[in-house]
Write the structure tokens for this entry.
Amino acid sequence: MPIFWIISGIVFYKFYFKSIENKTVNIQKFVRNRFTRLYPLHFLTLIIVALLQIYYFSIHKSYFIYINNLKYFVLNVLFIQNWNTNPINLGSFNGPAWSVSVELFVYLVFFVICLTKAINNNKLILLLILVAIVCEGFHWGLVNFNQCLYFFFAGCLLEKSFENNKQNLYKALFAFLGYFIVHFLLRHYLNDNRTVNNFLQAIGDIHGAIQLLFICLCIVYLVRILFDLRIFHKINPNIFSLLGNLTYSMYLIHFPLQLVFYIVINPTSYTVFNAPIVFLSYVGTTIIFGYLAFNYFEKIVQRKLRLAFDH
């Protein structure tokens, strides 16, 4: 998930920053684009999961993994199911959609920051990232919002630096390596003392958040370099476009398919899902249904909704 948020930050900075700053994309168009891209499949999978869970409950007298009640159904319909301060909530209905719910909030923050041109101020964005990390460490604010915020804007800064001054990124990479050396020297001490009091535990959480952020940034940065070196330039770009488009549909469909597989197989033990044939069947089915969902539902509904909004 952190890598997904970083990539989202890269994509949004690359394709939306200038348009928002120049006001060629206003808030209405921005919201329209995000709504028509994300909501239709979210609503469809919500209804599918709700029906499947009713059937599952009739057999097992309990729900499959996630919370399912009227309150959370309404929150899911509004796409704000994880705008909460309760760390115990592990998800509801189509559970994985929680990350998209959180990211919607960050999209609005991104729009405002681009519109006010604050994103041009690297120090301000770094301060925003640091504040979000500290807030996460002390469990302030909405659950998962802080993490999504600092990963997303770290992605924005990564792409901005890549476009403007690649030498700074090489220096940053050495700084990351230096950080890891310090981290490994301190890890034992922090781990041994995190339970001393809440403050030290929060410091340990902040330390862990910074570690995870840098690891994910390094991974994405290295992939970004590979694409910049044009190693894949002979591959048809439509393939990458298709893969990019399928990520959302596969992500939202994978849990409903898990539920279907469980209902059909009705196993006595979860170990049956370790079988290669079951796993490969599940992965293959997810890819196929992701492709079908994107081409025969998402694209069609998205086009019709945007025409309706434009008129």
Summary: The chain has one domain: 2-235. The CA atoms of residues 110 and 153 lie 8 Å apart.
